[in-house]
Design goal:
mainly alpha, 16 helices
Length: 347
Amino acid sequence: MHRVHAVDWLRGLALLVMIQTHSLVLLSPDTHADPLFRWLVRIDGLVAPAFILCAGFALALMQCRAALKGERRPQAIKSLKRIGEVLLAATFVNAVWFPLISQPKWLFRIDILQCIGLSLLLVLPLLVWLSSRPIVLRWVMLALSLTVFAIAPFFEKVDGFLGLFLNPQPGFLEASTGSVFPLLPWAGYVFMGASIGASVAAMTREADLWEWLGLLAFIGVTLWVQQSELNLAYPPHTFWVTNPANAAQRWALVVGLIALFRIIEIRRPSAAQSTALKWLAAFSASSLSAYVFHEMLLYQRTFGIFTRLWREQANWPQYAVLLLALIIATWLCVRLTSWVTRRRAAS
């Protein structure tokens, strides 16, 4: 059973950069014109694809490995419970941001955790069904992923109840409930991650993984360079949201990061035991709780001291200190929760 630390490191890094992304609200408006701010915004565009892709990877890999050991059904139940935890955490985060009790419409706001949870829920039956045939599964997941990206521009303006899940357009429950991470196109990254997870489950040699990563990168770069043609091939839409070329650029870069981490993992096996990468992997393993805690520390109406005290007030040195403090505070909350959970399980 192969261990791929590269994806663990990617998810840990994506979580750290996500905290940095959300912390940009602490910067004063006059910093937004600085080159550093514009550079950060460009880098931050890879956070969500990486985070979402890693979720699909983990689910597919666990399900395939369980099937190969004859434990398909027990793992499916565990996966279903985990998806339930993701959706519960997503609802909790919405409650932190919005008054769900007085305005239940906010329950339907699709943010990144809702997108991940719903996408995993949709794809779980396929993962369970094909988990004993990971090579077939990876091709099915790739086809499903590319289909999602290909059709996304056509659904950008759909309204009604389905519009709550498929695009960010308002119109069903008032404008303010528009989805931040609609299933089209973001579910495509879950399915693409699942294709990589299935490929790892099927690999018998290191080259198997590199061939699959190379295929994904090739498709991504090919579509990326055809962005003008792809933009014209669809009805009017928001290029930076639903265009397949934009999605291709993002997944090509994310696959490149996986490849880079994999090179480090293979060429320097001792790197996995370094303090920095062990901490990154530990942060990755607690990604759900870390996501919830950093959101609370930033935005919660009572405990969100960062935005209450420093929203749009920090210069760059102050921002760096506040960001470090937020990361440390998030990590301490994660560790405390883990300790309490272990104590309760032991008792």
